[in-house]
Amino acid sequence: MKPPPLKNDCFAMPPGVDWTPVDVALERLRSGLHAVTEVETLPVADAGGRVLAEPVTALRSNPPKANSAVDGFGFAHASLPPGDIAELPLAEGRAAAGVPFDGTVPEGHALRILTGAQIPPGVDTVVLEEDVTLDSGRIAFRGGLKAGANARAAGEDVEAGQEALPAGRKLQAQDLALISAVGVATVAARQRLRVAVLSTGDEVVAAGGPATDAQIYDANRPMLLEMAHRLGHHPVDLGHVKDDPGLVRAALSRGAAKADVILTSGGASAGDEDHISAVLSATGKLQTWRVAVKPGRPIAMALWDGVPVFGLPGNPVAAFVCTLVFACPALAVLAGADWVEPQGFDLPAAFSKNKKPGRREYLRARIRDGKAEVFKSEGSGRISGVSWAEGLVELGDEARDVAAGDQVRFVPFASFGL
């Protein structure tokens, strides 16, 4: 299956929008994007990290037959004698996993049964062996055991014909166990989203090489490539180009030929040397989002040869945060997965802050002693802060005075898929 191309207006904001609230930007992404990856059939063992293109339907029930949850003795609950202590004779034989009992357990008798063994006719309840006294072919145990105790019903996990997993699910290790348990050997999965990463700027040079005092090492490209990898996508390194429109155009064209989406860093604003914006504007398909977010603000959105381009800020901290907040859920949709709604937790603050109204703020944070502490500086040039952090404290658009002990929303990096 080949998905349809994105519409040229997929990034367009409603008329009259100046500073775009974060929630409006996220909703626009959610409504304007769809899967762009093609579908292939894979063995289950090779499908980890892939996105299901079609639901998985159980070919058989799990468990296929009723079975014992413990090592013990099985019997018909209705046959128990009255009184505080039940005593039953043992039937000949036993039931073990993979070796079922051949026959029916006589009424008023018990059968030795092991964990995972199919429950034979004449049995509906199992007593744990540690609760039983065994002597001379008879067992005794105290009353009070409920009917059906320690017995797993056939199909109690998943029934044959039932949907085991929905389309759009990114397959995890435990999903492969479930798929295999219901008898499915292959799945229709989407190919990995190819995410190209391009760094721009005359001031940017490769890490480890010679650099003047006016130059900086390329921090964004290795960060963004690894983020794409950690999100389960296929990273494509487009390298670095200087602030030259011709070089930028050539790099974007290379990316469009090799990838499903392009992430650029730097040059996304409206300055004289912001060539990403200038080149994308020349195509007539650029939307520059002035998002009311800190750190961040200008984010360029466009299509280049039909391939979506996310023009991220050049500041590494802003690029990191904007990738988490905006690019991560967008990439998930482009890959065919469900929109990722990051899970946050309310925790007491281990800091104080006076926040002004008008912007959503994301503070580099981590949890210590059950409280959310934030990095000592909010400076967007402090890359060490994102390395120090384990997540973000999200402060809403409104003004707020945060005092130590107040509840704040902490969103771990793992909630974004990292």
Structure commentary:
The strands form 8 sheets. The protein has a 7-stranded mixed sheet with strand order 1-20-22-23-19-15-18, with helices on both faces. A 6-stranded mixed sheet has the order 9-6-8-7-11-10, with no helix packed on it. Strands 21, 24, 26, 27, 28 and 30 form a 6-stranded mixed sheet that branches. The chain has helices at 22-32, 173-181, 220-230, 245-258, 275-282, 316-334, 384-388, and strands spanning 19-20, 39-43, 51-52, 56-57, 67-68, 72-75, 85-95, 110-113, 125-128, 133-135, 138-142, 151-152, 163-165, 186-190, 194-200, 204-205, 216-217, 234-241, 261-265, 287-291, 293-294, 298-304, 307-312, 345-348, 353-355, 360-368, 371-374, 391-395, 400-402, 407-412. A hairpin with a 2-residue loop joins strand 22 and strand 23 (307-312). The mean pLDDT is 91. The protein is 18% helix and 32% strand. The chain is an alpha+beta fold and 418 residues long. The protein folds into 4 domains: 19-38 and 192-334, MoaB/Mog-like domain (Molybdenum Cofactor Biosythetic Enzyme, Chain A, 3-Layer(aba) Sandwich); 44-60 and 164-190, no CATH class; 67-152, Molybdopterin biosynthesis moea protein, domain 3 (Molybdopterin biosynthesis moeA protein, domain 3); 345-416, Beta-clip, CATH 2.40.340.10.
Provide the gyration radius in Å. 30 Å
CATH architecture of the largest domain: 3-Layer(aba) Sandwich
CATH evolutionary superfamily of the largest domain:
MoaB/Mog-like domain
Number of domains: 4
> What is the rounded distance between the termini?
29 Å
Principal-axes shape call: elongated
Mean pLDDT: 91
CATH fold topology of the largest domain = Molybdenum Cofactor Biosythetic Enzyme, Chain A
Percent of residues in helices: 10-25%
Output the structural class: alpha+beta
